[in-house]
């Protein structure tokens, strides 16, 4: 490509290949669906951000911090107030003692924590085990860091861990396993027995666990969040990720944290120092206040989400969606086999539903990296106002209900 720049000089775009991995990444299904949702003014239950915001006191503390403190680079590791609050939170809620001075790092959301873990822990050719389906940022960053990904598919309908397959995925080259509980996109909460089996394999094969526990407080229906890092023998070989976006419904703040033993944290901190160096200090102070003084907010998230799920699920079941079990995060996975037209898959169904039915969901196949993903499942993000959930139900009834244009044929 050529063009003329401000100096009147004809320039040539460089012809050498840019980074292959990132150049070849397709547009994510989230971008595709969000764009389509905007074009069709649909009720968007695709993107997983809550309608309700976190505690007002946290905004006040963050706002005051902006005017009261020196607005210069805070410590690369995070402001002491937040690191101390993160350490207390780890001990009080996950049962994992934590030395704030040597075992905490504040990151730009859990997203940066994930990137820093991959870059800091992986060497070229290391094998990394990930459960399929998975949150989409894991794979690209791990591959960019040189990892060979070994996906292990969670088994339907309840996304349980297939223990024999998991054991078979470990090899002498396995460096790391990613464990996300409560799980995006399924809403599954890993059971203690599953986590104990994972821990035993990590110890047997000398493997590190990166525990993505951003939804740790979003649990209900009798399930209990257990941190893999809290199990015997795991504290020294795992790091744990948290997020103010999920714990306080402040997804725009992009404040997260990594806790873990100093030896594992050291290279993660080095990666963090070159990715972002540090994190907005006023927001960090707001989050510190929240962790120490607003526990009622995050402890209330589970019951409130449970009610929302109970509001949505019966309507969906009545319409013919097959509801898969889920006890955490804010995602509900449903089987849409009954609605699929010949040759249609989950992605095509979600596009049709947005265009014709005015409701946007996310096809689950987009969360898989292994071959032949299921193509009959969709994800609802139900962390939305009740009015929005009911508006979605009304549109679904009109479109997919008896006599509607998308109603399943009787055959
Ligand atoms: N992990 C999981 C499983 C997530 O679902 C998300 C956000 N959707 C993140 C990490 C990223 O969190 P943050 O917004 O704090 O970067």
TrEMBL record:
<dbReference type="InterPro" id="IPR015422">
    <property type="entry name" value="PyrdxlP-dep_Trfase_small"/>
</dbReference>
<feature type="domain" description="Aminotransferase class I/classII large">
    <location>
        <begin position="43"/>
        <end position="396"/>
    </location>
</feature>
<dbReference type="Pfam" id="PF00155">
    <property type="entry name" value="Aminotran_1_2"/>
</dbReference>
<dbReference type="InterPro" id="IPR015424">
    <property type="entry name" value="PyrdxlP-dep_Trfase"/>
</dbReference>
<protein>
    <recommendedName>
        <fullName>Aminotransferase class I/classII large domain-containing protein</fullName>
    </recommendedName>
</protein>
<dbReference type="GO" id="GO:0030170">
    <property type="term" value="F:pyridoxal phosphate binding"/>
</dbReference>
<dbReference type="InterPro" id="IPR051326">
    <property type="entry name" value="Kynurenine-oxoglutarate_AT"/>
</dbReference>
<dbReference type="GO" id="GO:0005737">
    <property type="term" value="C:cytoplasm"/>
</dbReference>
<dbReference type="InterPro" id="IPR004839">
    <property type="entry name" value="Aminotransferase_I/II_large"/>
</dbReference>
<keyword id="KW-0032">Aminotransferase</keyword>
<keyword id="KW-0808">Transferase</keyword>
<dbReference type="InterPro" id="IPR015421">
    <property type="entry name" value="PyrdxlP-dep_Trfase_major"/>
</dbReference>
<dbReference type="GO" id="GO:0016212">
    <property type="term" value="F:kynurenine-oxoglutarate transaminase activity"/>
</dbReference>
<keyword id="KW-0663">Pyridoxal phosphate</keyword>
<comment type="similarity">
    <text>Belongs to the class-I pyridoxal-phosphate-dependent aminotransferase family.</text>
</comment>
């Amino acid at each position: 490509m050529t063009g003329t720049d401000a100096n009147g000089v004809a320039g040539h775009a460089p012809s050498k290949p840019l980074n292959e991995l990132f150049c070849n990444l397709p547009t994510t299904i989230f971008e595709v669906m969000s764009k389509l949702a905007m074009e069709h003014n649909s009720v968007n239950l695709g993107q997983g951000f809550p309608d309700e915001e976190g505690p007002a006191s946290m905004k006040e503390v963050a706002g005051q911090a902006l005017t009261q403190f020196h607005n210069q680079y805070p410590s690369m590791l995070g402001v002491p107030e937040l690191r101390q609050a993160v350490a207390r939170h780890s001990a009080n809620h996950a049962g994992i003692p934590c030395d704030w001075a040597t075992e905490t790092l504040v990151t730009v959301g859990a997203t940066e924590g994930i990137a820093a873990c991959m870059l800091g822990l992986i060497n070229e050719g290391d094998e990394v085990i990930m459960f399929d389906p998975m949150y989409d940022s894991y794979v690209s960053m791990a591959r960019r860091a040189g990892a060979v990904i070994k996906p292990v598919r969670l088994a339907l309908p309840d996304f349980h861990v297939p223990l024999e397959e998991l054991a078979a995925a470990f090899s002498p080259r396995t460096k790391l396993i990613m464990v996300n509980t409560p799980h995006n996109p399924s809403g599954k909460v890993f059971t203690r027995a599953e986590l104990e089996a994972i821990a035993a394999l990590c110890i047997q094969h000398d493997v590190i666990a990166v525990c993505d526990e951003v939804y740790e407080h979003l649990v209900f229906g009798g399930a209990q969040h257990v941190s893999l890092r809290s199990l015997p023998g795991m504290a020294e070989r795992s790091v744990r990720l948290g997020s103010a976006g999920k714990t306080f419904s402040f997804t725009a703040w992009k404040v997260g944290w990594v806790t873990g033993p100093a030896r594992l944290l050291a290279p993660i901190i080095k990666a963090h120092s070159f990715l972002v160096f540090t994190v907005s200090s006023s927001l960090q102070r707001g989050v510190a206040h929240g962790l120490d003084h607003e526990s009622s907010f995050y402890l209330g998230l589970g019951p409130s989400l449970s009610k929302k799920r109970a509001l949505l699920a019966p309507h969906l079941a009545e319409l013919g969606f097959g509801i898969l079990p889920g006890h955490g995060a804010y995602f509900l996975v449903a089987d849409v086999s009954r609605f699929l037209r010949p040759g249609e898959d989950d992605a095509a169904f979600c596009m049709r539903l947005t265009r014709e039915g005015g409701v946007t969901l996310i096809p689950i196949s987009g969360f898989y990296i292994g071959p032949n993903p299921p193509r009959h499942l969709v994800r609802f993000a139900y962390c939305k106002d009740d009015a929005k959930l009911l508006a979605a139900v009304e549109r679904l009834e009109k479109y997919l209900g008896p006599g509607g244009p998308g109603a399943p044929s009787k055959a």
